[in-house]
Amino acid sequence: MYLEPSELIINADGSIYHLNLLPQDIANTIITVGDPDRVSDVSKYFDTIELKKGKREFITHTGTLQGKRITVISTGIGTDNIDIVLNELDALVNVDFRSRKIKNKITQLDIIRIGTSGAIQSDIAVDSFLLSQYAMGFDGLLHFYESEHLQNQEMAKAFVEDCDWSSQKSIPYVVSCDEDLAQMLMSDRIRFGLTVTNIGFYGPQSRVLRIKTNDENLNQKLTDFSFEKLKITNLEMETSGIYGLSKLLGHRAVSMNCILANRVTGDFSKTPTESVDQLIRYTLNKLTN
């Protein structure tokens, strides 16, 4: 299938449209971070850095650590940006830019999100680490793709019924992480969780400054929800999109969360920079050993 110039947009220098990257610029192991400033917080631990590129909020560094080639890229906040980043990363390895055709042999990427998150269970400590075993998306992104076969529709249906979910909101979808990649990153320091991906930081996560939300009990409903002994553990803004698109494209993905806030107890980390740095070093160590 030939991809028209309006569908696969290639810059004059041969790079992909938004990320400004060439196919040879990325490794098969990719770390995503939301904050562009966090890219250098990861790459400072590389033994070598071969590439630094940036366009808009998408900053990319590629280098090596203990002989392993790794790319770290900032996505910005939200699954709308994840839609851009995941599709363009996949195009870089699985589309021939000269012929504009999909390659016969598909390359699988390992995609690891290192991000921050807020817990909604009182027993989850601030500054702890959580791996998202499942992600429940409130963003609606995956409904634009043929994706029913990879969604846990029973869990999503149970949530809609138990939480009296408004029909005016996007239907939640549930996707799991890659189990093999998750096992590579596990230790007794990591807790598994069911992560909710929200479409905003304030109202969608029940934060009230000057605007009232339409369901003041939403966070309590999330805290109370249970499905086959699984409870919702934390809130963030990218994981469901990463999991869903990765599975559709044949990649492996895991989301590593540093818990900076506990919405039940009202606590916030006193050392957020140090805690995120510990998660970065933990993840890099697991990926290279």
Task: Report on the architecture of this protein.
This protein has 289 residues and is an alpha/beta fold. 26% of the residues lie in helices and 29% in strands. The strands form 2 sheets. It has a 5-stranded mixed β-barrel with strand order 7-12-10-8-13, surrounded by 4 helices. It is globular. It starts with 28 loop residues before the first strand and ends with a helix. 38% of the residues are buried.
Q: What's the N-to-C terminus distance?
A: 40 Å
Strands in their spatial order, largest beta sheet: 7-12-10-8-13
* Unreliable stretches: none
Task: Name the overall outline.
Answer: globular
The beta-strand count equals: 14
Indicate the radius of gyration in whole angstroms.
19 Å
Strand content: 25-35%
Mean pLDDT reading: 96
Most strands sheet? 5 strands, mixed, barrel
Helix content: 25-40%
Instruction: Encode the helix/strand succession as letters.
Output: EHEEEHEEEEHEHEHEEHEEH
Q: SS-based structural class?
A: alpha/beta
Number of helices: 7
Write the layout of secondary structure elements.
Layout: E1 29-33, H1 38-43, E2 48-55, E3 58-65, E4 68-74, H2 79-94, E5 95-96, E6 101-102, E7 110-119, E8 129-137, H3 153-162, E9 173-176, H4 179-185, E10 190-197, H5 218-224, E11 226-227, E12 230-236, H6 239-249, E13 252-262, E14 267-268, H7 272-288
Parallel strand pairs: 1-4, 1-7, 7-13, 8-10, 10-12
Antiparallel strand pairs: 2-3, 3-4, 5-6, 7-12, 8-9, 8-13, 11-12, 13-14
Helix pairs in contact: 2-6
